């Protein structure tokens, strides 16, 4: 099948042209000989509840156009919606979804694998930039069991998303490059972990406040 990828943020700024754009996408899907997979990331940005959320008339019209074009089952296209806030979908959108797939936060084994992956990518073999004078690898203390260290950290960062894990290892790289010796040690790693845990806790407080308000 052919495929199209867009985000809810692509639709919102279109204003009154959103209806035309929406019809063009589904017209293209209808004309495709292979059929089309339409993937919409951050779909809640324009498929929000009409009854409880204040939305503009242009966005309401775009949502109505989407609902009109997806009102019946079709062999011409498959719709895939991704959202961190599926509870924000309009009830008519939920009625059009055949299957719901939840992607939970990574467990400890997954966190460890991701730490190893990003550690290899950003610490052991960071990408070289032509004007960057640092060596390709970041020197590490030889007496540290890095497998054990990463395992310990993977247990400490319970609840972290993949993006947060990536940012943690990038912070290790930045600290190493900014240090006098240009190397990474356990103290620097633990300091970054502590800062990230504090930031993660603050985000949890913000998220809880948003849910309470809704």
Please, could you describe this protein's structure?
The protein has 214 residues and is mostly helical. It is 51% helix and 8% strand. The model has no long low-confidence stretch (mean pLDDT 87). The protein has helices spanning 8-11, 18-31, 57-69, 91-95, 108-124, 146-156, 162-178, 186-213; strands spanning 2-7, 36-41, 77-81. Strands 1-2-3 form a three-stranded parallel β-sheet. Strand 2 (36-41), helix 3 (57-69) and strand 3 form a beta-alpha-beta unit. Helix 5 runs parallel beside helix 7 and helix 7 (162-178) runs antiparallel to helix 8 (186-213).
Class inferred from helices and paired strands: mainly alpha
Number of helices: 8
Q: Would you identify the regions where 5 or more consecutive residues have pLDDT less than 50?
A: none
User: Total number of β-strand segments?
Assistant: 3
End-to-end CA span: 39 Å
Strand order of the largest sheet: 1-2-3
The largest sheet, given as strand count, sense and whether it forms a barrel, is: 3 strands, parallel
Strand content: 5-15%
H/E element sequence: EHHEHEHHHHH
C-alpha geometry: elongated
**Overall average pLDDT:** 87
Gyration radius, in Å? 23 Å
Proportion in helices = 40-55%
Organism: Geodia barretti (Barrett's horny sponge)
Keywords: Coiled coil
Domain ATPase AAA-type core: 8-103
Protein name: ATPase family AAA domain-containing protein 3-A
Summarize this entry quickly.
This protein is mainly α and 214 residues long. 51% of the residues lie in helices and 8% in strands.
